[in-house]
Please model this.
Amino acid sequence: MLRRIRFVSGWLLKNLGMLPLSPRVKMAIHDIMMLAISSLIVQSRTYQAWQTSASGTRRVQRLLAGDKDTQLPDALLPYAPYAELWDALEARPMREDVPCIDVIIPVYRDYDQSLNAIYRAIETRIYNKTPYRVVVVNDCSPDAQLTEALRSLAQRHLFTLMENEENLGFVKTVNKAMRLEPSRDVVLLNSDTEVYHDWLDRMVAAAASHPRVATITPFSNNAEICSYPYFVRANMMALECDYATLDHLAARVNHGAVVEVPTGVGFCMWIARAALDEVGYFDEEHFGKGYGEENDFCCRTTAHGFVHLMACDVFVRHVGGSSFGSSKNKLIAKNYQILCGLHPEYHGHVQDILRRDPMAMYRQALDVGRIDAYWQSQHYTKGAILMVNHTLGGGTERHMRELITACAYEAIPCIILTSDPDDEDRLMLHVEGVQPTPNLSFRMSHDHAAMLDVLRRLNIRHMHVHHLIHFPSRIMEYLRSLSHDLGIAYDMTLHDYFPICPRVNLIDDSGYYCGEPAVTTCEQCVRSHYSFVGNHSVWEWRFRYAEFLGQARRVFVPSEDMHQRMKQHMPHLHYAVRVHAERFDDVPCVRTIPRMHGERLRVAVVGALSRIKGSAVLEELVRDVAGRDCAIDYTIIGYTDNAALSKGLPHCHVTGAYKEHEIGQYLDDVAPHLILIPSLWPETYCYALSIAWRFGIRPVVFDIGAPAERVRALGAEGGDVLPYAWVYEPQRINDWLSQQGYHSQPLVRPETVGYASMQDDYYGQLVL
Model:
């Protein structure tokens, strides 16, 4: 079949090419003819027989049939149950009590989703005390396989089957089913849903909470105002837990909780028979094809004194959009206009609930419940640590994540507090392994009590502050308040010089190390150039930070060099040097490559090369190589903010960004003789240096900050330290480099740095 398709396609293109038509017209003719051919294939007896007998071939079927309506990856889409599962349902003893509810599932197409929805509705009867009947309505489906399966299953008395002789559309089909037993309440259940556990018992309990309830709607991943985790959004992402677990969590953390809403959502909606008797059925005249009919029904019942509730302790999965395909959005827009014309107050009611969002606290409870369940699955048994950090990535975030991993080995959970880049008043919580948790978002101005409540529920026992850049200016006062109200202490790790330098890195307007002058000079620098602390003066900023650090349990610094610098500015603080934990013995072989006589020296620069990391210095080095024809080639394994280097100067190549696990392959490809670390500021650690040691490539650093300190600690066998003054003399650097690498120089990697116990050795007798 594929050979024939290829032959026909080739024949069409060849003959169309002979016609005096524009390329656009030719391609349009080709596409139309190929669509016609594919339609003939799909409708052929051979294909229909294969489709009926095939199992698990949905991807191929969709490819041939051109079905593109789903928004979900195939891995997340439900599949039709195996024959053995249907057999097990049939073997169950029949319930003898009379059903009091009809669960109505209209079916039109999508074999897998429809059969899965029906199976789930039948399978969960065993968990529900409320007796109910499943009614499936086949609205003249064009899918012969689906129709045959429904008839076969109905003959086994698994559900009641109704079949329309012609396609009536959703609204007429549902009305027909709701009239089937006029004494019963009903639940409308879309054919692309999944229900779990005792879902119906919980909805019935919600209905009993008010004497005039017309509809009940549960939480779902895709249900407008009832959506979770994001509000009013189709949540198609995979969570760390399955949907059945999420329903179980909802039943536990939101037990018995209901919220009054202006309208139900029709994907899964319990409807009181009393409301149908008093107001009537869905409006077939205005909403015949569906979308908007349940909203219209809710508006009419509201006018009669009924209310509509959301059952916050029930979660039902909803794939969405399986019945209408690409016409969905147009139909929604059209019917919304009709709805607002019939009920002018509807739009205002919806806007009001969007503004108030009374479901937020219950979505938040689900976020917390998911985190708690995840921590239990990881066997975390100790109190949690709140990690406070920016969202800029880099070494600070890497170190924090390494700490989180190390704590996990000791059954210590961690949760991260960050600022919202789009809202300076908002703070957000999230946990590695539990994504997303958008409802753990709090305004500093008026959500303090809610933040405290969540942190207490998560058993936060300690706070570790890493960096406060891009947080609101009042963040230090806020964190002290959190610490006081929770009754916990906090530590802080200084990853750079933000507490004393509002420009972070001790770099002045020349782009080089400032020398840490008197505060009056710093004031002038900040007034003349960009500062990350707004209108605060340097002395005021240092005073506020000193106060915050002074109340910390411990102030960690990653190097002795930083310790000595900070002591000059804030001598009253007690610092604890905590070198970052790293392994240097996890690379199987040393990759030092001796430079052969006459060979050009290959120098690598690793990481994101900004100006303070030496991009301007490297540009001058590369230009000097080109001007004097030095035998050196530079490669930036990473990327740079330097436009000249990015565009490709001679003797310099930029690989582009890489993932951490790829660095070994890049180093193999480049095969550098040396790794140059041209940083201009007194770095406090430097992961690029660690990479050089891990892979056995000799590092070259300038005599400033922790890189120089770390190399000197190993002696001459650990690398080379160049005078900092050479950063102004690119020729001198190139001349020195030109003489290097002719012999395989001995290189000693440092010992692996680790802590026997994070709780005791790193944090220092921390009580969790």
